[in-house]
Amino acid sequence: MWDLIPALDCSQLLSLCPSQCKPLLFPITTPDPWVDPPKRTMSDQAFVTLATNDSYAKGAMVLGQSLRNHHTTRKLVALIGPHVAEPCRDALRSIFDEVCVVDVMDSGDAAHLAMMKRPDLGVTFTKLHCWRLTQYSKCVFMDADTLVLSNIDELFEREELSAAPDPGWPDCFNSGVFVFRPSNETHEKLLTFCGENGSFDGGDQGVLNSFFNTWATADISKHLPFIYNLSSIAIYSYLPAFKQYGHGVKVVHFLGKVKPWNYSYDAQKGEVKGQSDPCQLHPDYLLMWWQLYAKAVVPLLQKAYGDTPFSSGFVDDKLHEDVTAQTASSPPPPPPPQVTSAERKQRWEEGQIDYLGADSFDNIERKLNSFLK
């Protein structure tokens, strides 16, 4: 019986099948393992920051580079004041897709009129200019004293006005990082509000919290987790929480009067040199800021300034050696006076914390571990 069955190959068998039964054949392509897939860029969404002088411009450069390093797919926009030097503007253009000069006093519009009424809110009016970036459908504003530690593009899934709680008063949001939708109408309303009501804290945070006054109660989805705006000085107020959740931090915010660029950096030793005031910033994050600044920003500034000298913030090695030699030949300084527990407690309550000495992160952690054992 088997001799009666013809031997057919695959093509002959397929020709006998009804057309609806024949399999669909697709060409198989093997991707080139050496070619990265193209990144999709959201051209109508942007991260926005503000620099009103050369110092904050350096902070903006570090922020922009940290966003680049973590492969953001959004555009980067820097708003700058008229006093930012041209070399700094050139360096910013190397990192940001768009650099916009905002001069409220020369604008001749409602912002100018509001500025005349409330000259104390000059920087605030400049920051509010971000609502005029109507070429973008949604933006995330970030202060120039923030540093991104991982990709945060998921923030664009949030709606206006989304922000993280302020550590000083959690029913207020901190305006260092917030999601917003550019709108000329909202911009006009904010200007009118500023002129009529001012700011309860003298800055943009007071204005924005008063304007978006339902943030605390209306929609919990607009409350960003604290990891998107971690205040570096708040770490010490609740150290066990930082030990528990700190590994997930995405954005560090260097709040306070002393900023990273107010310190200096010894590139040879890889050390940050502190000011005369106690360090208000977490040393690990401060070092991360300076390492990124040294690697990615300083070369841009050197190229932009050319032969013109500028302040890089680096320790002058020769000057440092001279000071060291002079110190070695002079008698050692007297030891610091001993501080009693009562005096230390009073200094803590007054905000005078010796972050680089007795109240350092390591000492506090060691003390907590002794209690938690």
TrEMBL record:
<dbReference type="GO" id="GO:0005634">
    <property type="term" value="C:nucleus"/>
</dbReference>
<comment type="function">
    <text>Glycogenin participates in the glycogen biosynthetic process along with glycogen synthase and glycogen branching enzyme. It catalyzes the formation of a short alpha (1,4)-glucosyl chain covalently attached via a glucose 1-O-tyrosyl linkage to internal tyrosine residues and these chains act as primers for the elongation reaction catalyzed by glycogen synthase.</text>
</comment>
<dbReference type="InterPro" id="IPR029044">
    <property type="entry name" value="Nucleotide-diphossugar_trans"/>
</dbReference>
<feature type="region of interest" description="Disordered">
    <location>
        <begin position="323"/>
        <end position="346"/>
    </location>
</feature>
<dbReference type="GO" id="GO:0005737">
    <property type="term" value="C:cytoplasm"/>
</dbReference>
<keyword id="KW-0539">Nucleus</keyword>
<keyword id="KW-0963">Cytoplasm</keyword>
<keyword id="KW-0479">Metal-binding</keyword>
<keyword id="KW-0597">Phosphoprotein</keyword>
<dbReference type="GO" id="GO:0005978">
    <property type="term" value="P:glycogen biosynthetic process"/>
</dbReference>
<comment type="similarity">
    <text>Belongs to the glycosyltransferase 8 family. Glycogenin subfamily.</text>
</comment>
<dbReference type="InterPro" id="IPR002495">
    <property type="entry name" value="Glyco_trans_8"/>
</dbReference>
<dbReference type="GO" id="GO:0008466">
    <property type="term" value="F:glycogenin glucosyltransferase activity"/>
</dbReference>
<dbReference type="Pfam" id="PF01501">
    <property type="entry name" value="Glyco_transf_8"/>
</dbReference>
<dbReference type="GO" id="GO:0046872">
    <property type="term" value="F:metal ion binding"/>
</dbReference>
<keyword id="KW-0325">Glycoprotein</keyword>
<keyword id="KW-0464">Manganese</keyword>
<comment type="pathway">
    <text>Glycan biosynthesis; glycogen biosynthesis.</text>
</comment>
<dbReference type="InterPro" id="IPR050587">
    <property type="entry name" value="GNT1/Glycosyltrans_8"/>
</dbReference>
<keyword id="KW-0808">Transferase</keyword>
<protein>
    <recommendedName>
        <fullName>glycogenin glucosyltransferase</fullName>
        <ecNumber>2.4.1.186</ecNumber>
    </recommendedName>
</protein>
<keyword id="KW-0320">Glycogen biosynthesis</keyword>
